[in-house]
Design brief:
Number of strands: 7
Order of helices and strands: EEEHEHEEHHHEHHHHHH
Helix content: 40-55%
Shape: globular
Number of domains: 1
Strand order of the largest sheet: 4-5-3-6-7
Largest sheet: 5 strands, parallel
CATH architecture: 3-Layer(aba) Sandwich
Length: 283
């Protein structure tokens, strides 16, 4: 185990890097509130099962109270073409990286941006974990207080700008030929099939019984919506319950390209991999 230490202002980021494994590295990306915890937990269980060393840079930032957005290209030193699973990303790297993502396989999970916005509101206002120290703690506590006094429609109108940038950042950063994309709506009720498909993409051989066990472990379906729990609800289209029609119309207009490109202007009837008109490959 090797420890890397980085200074960001007054805060120090410590990341323990295990010895590399005998495999090609891969990266697990997701949008904020797209099922990222589910995805990362399942892949982490796979890594533990296969004894694959994994590195969760965003989690290390959070635990150290450091905002992910302050990272710089020194982090490239942690990323290798072989040896590791890189998990936990809700954003693409916040700096211009020299790492060649064409040389590794990448998985990206997205969700209807309108549902993401509503989910982020309730998470930030009520349920998101707060770290014990650092700038992140102060930022999240201040944001929680502000959001509990903010109308959700006002929040949605503002937060859509961040969501739009997030989509565009992924579209322009992940290469078509080595990226596989999944929609939350297509996989949330098919966790076993989803996990098996991801493992096929990553060329991992795991017994069907183990795949089923991991999928069942993380198949959490709340009986009713609870704003104060991390898994508040899982059913697609929840934004219609919480946003005014005027707000929905505005989001539809502002994010029209995204909604059309990823199939969110139609009924959710795609197979695991819909076919967009953008750079990211669905298969």
């Amino acid at each position: 185990m090797t420890q890397y230490n980085f200074k960001f202002g007054k805060e120090e980021l410590k990341i323990d890097v295990p010895r590399p494994g005998d495999l090609n590295s891969f990266f697990i990306f997701a949008m904020h509130k797209s099922g990222s915890v589910l995805l990362n937990n399942m892949i982490t269980d796979v890594c533990n099962c296969k004894k694959i060393p994994f590195i969760n840079i965003p989690s290390c930032c959070f635990d150290n109270g450091i905002r992910f957005g302050v990272l710089d290209n020194r982090i490239d030193n942690l990323m290798k073409i072989r040896g590791y699973a890189y998990v936990g990303f809700r954003n693409f790297l916040p700096y211009k990286t020299d790492f060649d993502f064409k040389k590794v396989k990448n998985i990206l999970l997205i969700r209807d941006p309108r549902d993401m916005i509503v989910s982020q509101y309730f998470s930030a206002a009520y349920s998101h974990t707060i770290p014990k120290k650092g700038d992140v703690k102060d930022y999240l506590l201040e944001r929680r207080e502000n959001l509990q006094n903010m109308d959700i429609d006002l929040y949605a109108s503002e937060y859509q700008k961040f969501v739009t940038r997030q989509f565009k950042r992924y579209e322009t950063s992940l290469p078509v030929e080595t990226t596989k994309l999944y929609r939350y709506e297509d996989v949330i009720f098919k966790k076993r099939e989803w996990l098996r498909d991801m493992l096929d993409f990553l060329e991992m051989d795991i017994p069907v019984k183990i795949i089923s066990k991991i999928a069942e472990k993380h198949d959490v379906m709340p009986e009713k919506e609870d704003s104060h729990k991390h898994i508040r609800q899982v059913v697609p289209g929840n934004y219609k319950k919480h946003l005014k029609q005027k707000t929905i119309d505005k989001l539809n207009e502002k994010m029209a390209d995204i909604l059309d490109c990823y199939g969110y202007n139609s009924v959710h009837s795609f197979p695991l991999h819909p076919c967009p008109k953008v750079r990211i490959e669905y298969n």
